[in-house]
Amino acid sequence: MHQHKGDYGIDGSFKTVSARGQAIGLGAQAAALLGLAAISWRRGKRPTAAVAAAGGAGIIASTALYLYATRSGKFEAWERILDSLQLRGDETVLDMGCGRGAVLLATAKRLPRGRAIGIDLWRPDQTDNSPSATLKNADLENVGDRIEVRTADMTALPFDDNSFDVIVSSLAIHNIPTREGRRQALREATRVLRSGGRLAIADLWDTRRHAAQLRELGWQDVQHRNVGWRMWYGGPWVSTRLVTATKPGSIP
């Protein structure tokens, strides 16, 4: 596994409540439940104590899994996904919704003769999400000369048809609020990908629809699977799934 040197923040939605605020809220809930468990136990209310203790422990365990996924697990999972793509090293790769560059820069490390381009709207889906944070991480990872970042909408990509050899996306398309918007993002990905090019999308929902949409378009080797526990964002009920496929036609 490649070691990462950058600061990639914490994944999540921080538009309404900051990461610090969410952490304080979860800590307070866990503490309240564990406190209730202790009080109930002393008063002989064993069933109440057991339920409260389980609730508090559940919050702590879910939070630990979430932090593991965002700080370590996703890197391990994406190393395996990138391994499966078997990059030659001279491709042009697009990362849709690159954020602070976790997948973008891991990909760039595999492109000594290629280029990785990341696009994002830089919304608060990660802590301190910004182009400058991504570029700083690129320099720390020694791939600043291989990457480019742009402010762009996934539903209207600023690229010509057939511009990329590979497209990747991690936990980004689900942020588009409408189903039609998410379908449009996938249509844009299929437009800018070259014939014979490969697509890998890891996300929390709508992945079955993505796979079905690609099959309707006649794409080859469409696969849909659970990424596994490394990208459980709180538990198996918030698991990441991966869609991979190859665009029809031969590589030019």
UniProtKB/TrEMBL annotation:
Span of domain Methyltransferase type:
94-201
A GO biological process held by the record: methylation
Pfam families, per this entry? Answer: Methyltransf_11
Q: Which UniProt keywords apply?
A: Membrane, Methyltransferase, Transferase, Transmembrane, Transmembrane helix
Gene Ontology MF annotations: S-adenosylmethionine-dependent methyltransferase activity
Q: Report the transmembrane regions from the record.
A: 23-41, 48-69
Q: Which domain of life is it from?
A: Bacteria
Q: Provide the protein name.
A: Methyltransferase
